[in-house]
Design brief:
The chain has about 325 residues and is of the alpha+beta class. The protein has three domains: about 110 residues; about 100 residues, PAS domain (Beta-Lactamase, 2-Layer Sandwich), CATH 3.30.450; about 70 residues, Helix Hairpins (Orthogonal Bundle), CATH 1.10.287. Helix content is about 65%, strand content about 15%. The protein is built from seven helices and five strands, in the order ααββααβββααα. It has a five-stranded antiparallel beta sheet, with helices on both faces. A hairpin with a 2-residue loop joins strand 3 and strand 4. The longest helix is centred in the first third of the chain and has 59 residues. It is rod-shaped, with a radius of gyration of 47 Å.
């Protein structure tokens, strides 16, 4: 799933080990050749000594002594070759241990990325995908191998990823918290994306790192909070209307009632009684509208009652 780049250090280390191995093999071949040549010289000297007269034996023994000295030098060369072989073995062992540790670190990094709840994918400078974790495959709806594929394979719904990746490559500055909506199995899903530069230890730019999160539940919660804020605003408006409109209506209703009582003992026309009735009826209607608006906008406290928890769970 993750594309692994070979570092220059590991290749240099391999070349060093290969050179030492070649040097050790060359030394072994040279040593074997010297020993074989020395063996032939000893055989020749032995045959010469058998055929020489007694007057030349002293010279032959001196030559044999020089050959023994060469034999000691050969033994020293063999010892040096053994030491070189041991050093080479230790170097190879250290290299294998470092390679194993590096593999363990890479496996750990892969496990961490695979366990993350957000999608993470990396691209090179040409916006070609170099790695992506399983959560990224799931969120972007990708299938199969997308490594070494252009970022455009994510589809039209995720075009924002290509846009912010190009922006980061062009301006060398990160982009955070860009929300966009996609449709998954008939349901809207809100994703939040960000992008930053990918650098190595020498701070050289290798590409970009894109991260995508599913913030659908958070977006719904934010919508509910905004709706509650609007309801709270309606509650404040209802309180203001209650104060500014209902109080004058109450005074108006009182004065209409007093006027009706004052005209009760007098002879009035039917039109006056009808107009007073209409005013009284409209006052009641406006009061009911204000009460309904207040009840709709107010956030009533939920009621509490004792229940059987076992029955509720069942």
């Amino acid at each position: 799933m993750f594309h692994v780049y070979k570092t220059r250090v590991s290749r240099g280390f391999q070349l060093a080990i290969g050179g030492l191995a070649l040097l050790s093999l060359t030394g072994l071949i040279v040593t074997l050749w010297i020993l074989a040549d020395f063996q032939r010289e000893q055989e020749i000297v032995a045959r010469i000594i058998r055929d020489l007269p007694d007057s030349d034996l002293a010279v032959a023994r001196e030559l044999a002594g020089e050959l023994r000295f060469q034999s000691q030098l050969s033994i020293l060369l063999v010892l040096n070759l053994c030491v070189t072989a041991v050093a080479l073995a230790l170097l190879v062992r250290a290299y294998l241990n470092s390679e194993r540790s590096l593999r363990e670190v890479k496996v750990l990094a892969s496990d961490v990325l695979a366990s993350m709840d957000q999608g993470v994918l990396t691209t090179d400078r040409e916006e070609v995908i170099t790695s992506i974790n399983p959560r990224g495959m799931e969120l972007l709806g990708l299938h199969g191998n997308v490594i070494d594929q252009p970022l455009s394979v994510v589809g039209i719904e995720h075009t924002l990823l290509s846009v912010i990746c190009s922006h980061v490559n062009a301006h060398h500055s990160p982009v955070r918290d860009c929300d966009y909506t996609i449709t998954t199995q008939g349901h809207e899903q809100t994703l939040r994306a960000g992008c930053s530069l990918l650098r190595n230890e020498q701070q050289e730019e290798l590409g970009t790192v894109l991260h995508v999160r599913d913030v659908t539940e958070r977006a719904l919660m934010e919508q509910r909070l905004r709706r509650m804020e609007r309801y709270a605003g309606l509650g404040s408006l209802a309180t203001g209307l209650q104060h500014e409109i209902k109080n004058p209506l109450s005074a108006l209703s009182l004065h209409v009632q007093l006027l009706d009582e004052a005209l009760m003992g007098q002879t009035t026309s039917e039109d006056v009684n009808e107009m007073l009735g209409v005013i009284h009826t409209e006052i009641i209607r406006l009061t009911a509208v204000l009460e309904g608006f207040r009840d709709y906008a107010s956030m009533s406290e939920p009621g509490r009652t004792d229940v059987d928890l076992g029955t509720l769970i069942k």
